[in-house]
Specification:
Largest sheet: 5 strands, mixed
Oligomer: single chain
Distance between the termini: 77 Å
Radius of gyration: 18 Å
Number of strands: 5
Order of helices and strands: EEEEHHEHH
Helix content: 25-40%
Strand content: 15-25%
């Protein structure tokens, strides 16, 4: 029986729900091929990094649902989700490599809220003495 492992990855306001199954390397993101979803090569590279670091490229089928944020945030959320799923599959084999590459750390930076009485989060309206 092939066991599906699911994990959650987040970055900024992007959320990635990842389902990893042992297979032939099929990679679907929101029902589309990863190359089609992430047209830019650097984003495809970010999404595939966990497999390259652990040497498991082409061994798992990935089905991911991405929501919120921009494309870069979604790619990095996907990277975190895949890394967490790989750790669930075989902690001893993959965890140290993924941790040293920094793929298991959730980037805590979020957009700061806009405050009342000013145009942005930190920006103030121009001060006029007279």
């Amino acid at each position: 029986m092939e066991k599906t492992v699911n994990a959650l990855g987040r970055h900024k306001s992007a959320v990635a729900r990842v389902y990893l199954t042992p297979g032939s390397g099929k990679f679907l993101v929101n029902g589309r091929e990863v190359n089609e979803y992430f047209a830019e090569g650097s984003l495809q590279y970010i999404a595939n990094q966990p497999f390259e670091v652990t040497g498991t490229a082409g061994q798992f089928d990935v089905k991911a649902n991405l929501d919120g944020g921009g494309v870069k945030g979604q790619a990095e959320a996907l990277r975190l989700g895949i890394s967490r799923a790989l750790c669930e599959i075989d902690r001893e084999a993959y965890r140290s490599a993924l941790k040293s590459a920094g793929f298991l750390t959730r980037d805590p930076r979020e957009v700061e809220r806009k405050k009342p009485g000013q145009p942005g989060a930190r920006r103030r309206f121009q001060f006029s003495k007279r």
